[in-house]
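User: Predict the structure for this protein chain, please.
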Amino acid sequence: MGKTMKNAHKVSYLFTVALLSTVSIEAFATDDAAELAKKLSNPVADIINMPFQLNYDNNIGAAENVERYQLNIQPVIPIKLNEDWNVISRTVLPVIVQQYDGMDKSTDWGVGDITQSFFFTPTPKSPDDLIIGFGPVIYLPTASEKTLGPDQYALGPTAVIAKQSHGWTVGALANHLWAVEKKEGAEGINSTFLQPFVNYTTPTSVTYSLNTESTYDWNTDDYTIPVNLTATKIVKLDKQLISVGGGFRYWAHDTDSSAKDFGVRLIASFIFPK
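Assistant: Here is the predicted structure, written as structure tokens:
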């Protein structure tokens, strides 16, 4: 626990230094920034953005001797189908560094498996409309190391529902993955992901977010529940809009193979409004 907090504080310190360096960044018009921040709280908003999400976790595995830095590169690209429908492409490409304590090897690093989602969503008629999206999710075995992914293709449905009002965004995103092929001697992927979320955006474009990212493994009847609490703000660097922030995560329920205790999440999203 002490080591976890020490490393978490180290990551937080580096991020704080980065935030302080933005003091000279040009201020962005408050009203425009607040509206843009609200759009970013919508998982299927019609806006191109490129989030970089860095997660630090510790005490991984039964021996609790692994720590992991995982940078999720998550491009979001909306595609207009017609006047009534859009499809939103959401990709998650993890870049992972795992460090081992007291083992023959010290480090594994490389890319992990890609998760690709497509959400078909109706074009909203007003800001008060219920936000919905649904479509397929595809899991691709792109991991560069055996320790960074299960080396299986998987496929399933995904959906999101949300409501926005007076700065609040409340909703949930979910998917389920089934293995397309099962490797000999290994269980095929059969897991459910659920992410309920509550976000609040202030008039100064600061967004406070609380969510969980629960995964239930139907093969083992076990599950994990990391809880994430973050704050982000939109700033303007030259002509580029960026949502920057971070926060902490806590593993409210863990497994032998998962992380435990506390972690850190840092976020930088590059925004390309129309």
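The domain at 2-272 is CATH 2.40.160.40 (Porin).
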